[in-house]
Amino acid sequence: MEQILIIEDDMGLNQGLCRALKSENRQVISCLNLKTAREQLLCGSVSLVLLDINLPDGSGLDFLKELKVADPVRPVILLTANDTDMDIVAGLEQGADDYITKPFSLSVLRARVNTQLRKNAAQLSTKTFQIDGFLFQFDQMQFSKDGVPIELSKTEQKLLRLLVENQGQVMSRADLVDRIWTDGAEYVDENALSVTIKRLRDKLGAQKQIQTVYGIGYTWGKKHE
To answer: Is pLDDT above 80 for 136?
Structure first.
């Protein structure tokens, strides 16, 4: 289910946004300040953020930087009364995916929110995986955890992609070997997969995510505390 996080200190406008954006397959979370927003972001997977710039406990532009470091892919739409060209350029250059000035039409807002959600869904489904604080962009060969870049070899990238594309499913050792080492080699050392799994776990810090299913193979599973 999609989750939209609204951060707007005008209670009347906040409630109006909630009503306008809520739907059967969408949850809308309402916050009046940055403190509450930070707490909400720790609780679940937010698909899109609607962010006011002028908030009682800080700058929305500063918070925008935090959001984009934590998750560069998640769309953020700025809502603000600051409508000069300089304000708009500043917001977009700091990573905002869209910029809507007050007053605005709720129907236009809905359309622009839906556009960003569609773009994000397409990107995630074809190129990017965002899981447990990890961001994997395979086409760009960029990988990070909590915003910190991680360098992976081509073999490690192949292994990682197979695991996350089949999240929750057990990949057999034989299948992984066949699909990773496809250079025509007649023999691959049985230990090569174990070594690559260990390197990948260590580089990503994914000991809890990359799980061994003894006697069968490996899976990228849900994080367990």
So the answer is: yes
